[in-house]
Structure formats: C-alpha cells, structure tokens
Write a structure and sequence with these properties.
Blueprint (H helix, E strand, L loop, with lengths): L7 E4 L4 E4 L2 E5 L4 E4 L4 E4 L2 E5 L4 E4 L5 E3 L2 E5 L4 E4 L12 E3 L2 E3 L12 E3 L5 E3 L2 E3 L6 E3 L5 E3 L2 E3 L8 E6 L9 E3 L2 E5 L7 E6 L7 E3 L2 E5 L1 E5 L6 E3 L2 E2 L1
Parallel strand pairs: 1-4, 2-5, 3-6, 4-7, 5-8, 6-9, 7-10, 8-11, 9-12, 10-13, 11-14, 12-15, 13-16, 14-17, 15-18, 16-19, 17-20, 18-21, 19-22, 20-23, 21-24, 22-25, 23-26, 24-27
Length: 233
C-alpha cells in the first residue's frame, strides 16, 4: 500500500492484451494506456486502488472489457480520445464491466466511467453503489448503451446518474437502452437519472427504462435534444 504510482502501463504500443490478471493495492492508478491502438485489458480484477481503476489516454480502439473494478478511491474508468476539431472518432470503449464501490475518497465527480473527446462508448456495464454520478460525458458522438445503473447518487442532490452539460457544441451523443433504478439522492433537487444540464444540446435519449428515480430525464436548456420511446415506472 506504500506504492504511489500505477500498477500497469502501456505507452504508445499497439496490439497488446492483458487478460485475466489481478491489479490491486496502490495509492495511485491501476492501469494507464497512452496512445497506440487495439490495446485491450480483458477479464481482469482491479480493486483497492487509491485513485482511478483504468485510464485510456487517446489512441484508437483501445478498451477495458469484462473487468471487475471496485474499491477505488476515485473513479472506475476514464476514456479519452478523438479530435473535436475534425470530429475524428477514437473508438475507445468500456464494455461489460462490473464497476461498484468507487469514489471512496473523493466523493463527487469521480464516476464509474468518464468519457471525453469524440466517438467513444460505454456499453453493457453494471454501475452500482456509489455516492455520486455513474457516467460523465463531454465531447461529441459518444454512445452510452445497454448499461445498468443502480443504487448510485446516494449522498448528493442536483446530480445525474448519466450527466452531460454546459456546452452547446457537445452534440451527437446517444444514451439508449439503459436501465436506471433506485436513483434517489438526498440533497436539494434529488437525483436525475439522465441530466442534460445547462446548454447540453443535440443529445438523444432513447429506449431507456427508469424505475424508482427522483427524476427520469432533465433538460436544463440547450436545443435539439430528443427524449423518445422511454419507459418511466
């Protein structure tokens, strides 16, 4: 536990897979991938991490898949990549992961998955048991789909289980076919399952299921947002 740095690191390399390994007990981050393409972390256990479980900085088609990530001081996964000036997608992804009991040290704005840039995705993940948000989005043309969000936002109000906001230019994002349940924050304003905050624009919220949430979807301004074919129970 005295280790202050990361446990695993890939810098500028491509076509590498780390599969079925355990990464645990550090004060720093678990795994960092910088640049390169087709780097995969698959079927690993990442736990008891001081900061963030796994980070992808740029590159193309790099991913975290089928990992168990829990007991992190900060967030679960960070996905960065793509060029917003040209809208070139990175295609980085977090898929089929079980992410829970995160944000133990910094209690807010340390989500299970943070996505930025262009054309990245979070799909088929189970996100559960946390004090604040599940997925934070910024940038363009991201997909958040087929995830289950449950029992998060437990300590905060005016919070979104899936949140994007404060920029008219962050367009083309899609939030679809997710399940949100038991999202009820105690603070002022409660919790919002999907929170399109100040100026969030061009977002599609389609085919999701909302059950036992304070608010299903909030549109806090912006333009060209679509909420369609969802189920609210």
């Amino acid at each position: 536990s005295m280790l202050g740095g990361r446990l695993g690191f890939v810098d500028g390399a491509s076509h590498i897979t780390r599969r079925g390994l355990g990464f645990e007990i550090t004060r720093g981050n678990g795994i960092e991938i910088t640049g390169g393409n087709d780097v995969l972390v698959a079927g690993c256990t990442i736990r008891n991490i001081g900061k963030i479980g796994a980070i992808i900085h740029g590159g193309f088609h790099n991913g975290i898949i089928s990992c168990d990530i829990h007991g992190t001081g900060d967030g679960g996964i960070v996905l960065e990549g793509g060029n917003r000036s040209t809208l070139t997608p990175a295609g980085n992804f977090a898929k089929n992961n079980n992410i829970g009991d995160y944000s133990r040290w910094v209690r807010t704005y340390r989500p299970a998955v943070r996505i930025s840039g262009v054309g990245n995705s979070a799909a088929n993940n189970l996100i559960h048991d946390a004090p604040h948000t599940g997925i934070l989005l910024s940038g363009n043309d991201h997909a958040v789909e087929y995830n289950v969000f449950r029992d998060i936002c437990r300590e905060t109000g005016d919070v979104g289980a899936c949140y994007i906001g404060r920029d008219w230019t962050m367009r083309g994002n899609v939030i679809r076919f997710n399940i949100f349940r038991n999202i009820r924050g105690p603070g002022a304003g409660g919790a919002r399952a999907v929170y399109l905050d100040d100026l969030a624009s061009g977002t599609t919220v389609y085919g999701n299921s909302f059950r036992n949430v304070t608010y299903g979807v909030i549109i806090g301004g912006g333009r060209d947002n679509t909420v369609e074919n969802n189920v609210f129970v």
